[in-house]
């Protein structure tokens, strides 16, 4: 799998999905039995879920036992008094992060987000779901909503990677998914290089509920790929709260880390 991924990425830079599928099929013939774990690239994937090896599954789910993590915003490498979520209001109750934004975890989400490797949403979404189960949040939420992309960004990219992740997480958690009610109305500047306050200001008012009937009185679990300060999730939470949603939580693939950025 590791060999296939590297070759695939070099050869398929900028190409469409059909080419990638075709290339994957050829590589499958050249490197048979490539059902290897995408995290370690070494162990065969086993079990009914078939998305990650048991060693890596254990490793990912026990990251919070060894890395200090903020119980409110999910930031890895957080100080005891986390400054990231200091100014969050109560509309966003809690965010869970699956992994820190570094190493293979960063590489995998980049492959999903920028190279359109949708198949990676299976292991990543599965781990989002398992993280929610482990946290005890599952019994508290009714509906999953992915962070929407602006329509022009969606058109340009061809997909919303957060929706891919949310779909898998919803499947694992047996919860309904709503990718329609909330839309991204304003095209925001890239957040990179902006400070905390600027990010909050940049994102506020970016989202709108076009229909609140599904979210009314429901507890929501927002899903996103990477969280830096949380300004995007916070803006979503404000929109949902104003629309009459119940308690709002979030789960993201990567939260903070040594080289955090969006
Ligand atoms: Zn593995
Ligand atoms: Zn925090």
- Name the hetero compounds present: zinc ion
Beta-strand content bin: 5-15%
* Overall pLDDT level: 86
Low-confidence stretches: 1-15
Radius of gyration: 18 Å
Main sheet attributes: strand count, strand direction, barrel closure: 4 strands, parallel
* Known CATH architecture: 3-Layer(aba) Sandwich
Element-level helix/strand string: HHHHEHHEHHEHEEHE
User: Could you please say which CATH topology applies here?
Assistant: Rossmann fold
Coarse morphology:
globular
Number of helices: 10
Structural class: alpha/beta
In total, the number of strands is 6
Number of domains: 1
Helical proportion, percent range: 25-40%
- Whole-Å distance between the termini? 27 Å
CATH class category label: Alpha Beta
Please list the strands of the largest sheet in the order they lie side by side.
Answer: 1-6-5-2
Family: Belongs to the ComF/GntX family.
Pfam families: Pribosyltran (PF00156)
Domain Phosphoribosyltransferase: 165-255
Organism: Thermanaerosceptrum fracticalcis
């Amino acid at each position: 799998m590791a060999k296939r991924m590297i070759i695939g990425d070099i050869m398929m830079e900028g190409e469409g999905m059909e080419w990638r599928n075709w290339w994957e099929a050829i590589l499958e013939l050249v490197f048979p039995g490539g059902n290897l774990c995408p995290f370690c690239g070494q162990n065969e994937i086993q079990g009914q879920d078939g998305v990650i090896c048991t060693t890596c599954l254990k490793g990912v789910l026990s990251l919070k036992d060894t890395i200090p993590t903020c119980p409110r915003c999910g930031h890895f490498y957080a100080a005891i008094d986390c400054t990231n979520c200091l100014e969050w209001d109560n509309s966003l109750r809690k965010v869970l992060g699956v992994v820190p934004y570094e190493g293979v975890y960063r590489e995998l989400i980049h492959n999903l987000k920028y190279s359109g490797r949708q198949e990676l949403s299976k292991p990543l979404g599965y781990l989002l779901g398992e993280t929610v189960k482990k946290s005890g949040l599952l019994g508290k939420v009714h509906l999953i909503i992915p962070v929407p992309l602006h329509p022009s960004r969606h058109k340009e990219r061809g997909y919303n990677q957060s929706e891919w992740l949310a779909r898998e997480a919803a499947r694992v958690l047996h919860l309904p998914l709503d990718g329609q009610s909330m839309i991204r109305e304003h095209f925001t500047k890239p957040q990179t290089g902006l400070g905390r306050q600027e990010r909050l200001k940049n994102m506020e008012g970016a989202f709108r509920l076009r229909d609140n009937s599904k979210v009314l009185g429901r507890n929501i679990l927002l899903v996103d790929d990477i969280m830096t300060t949380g300004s995007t999730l916070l803006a979503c939470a404000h929109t949902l709260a104003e629309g009459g949603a119940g308690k709002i939580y979030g789960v993201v693939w990567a939260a903070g880390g040594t080289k955090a950025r969006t």
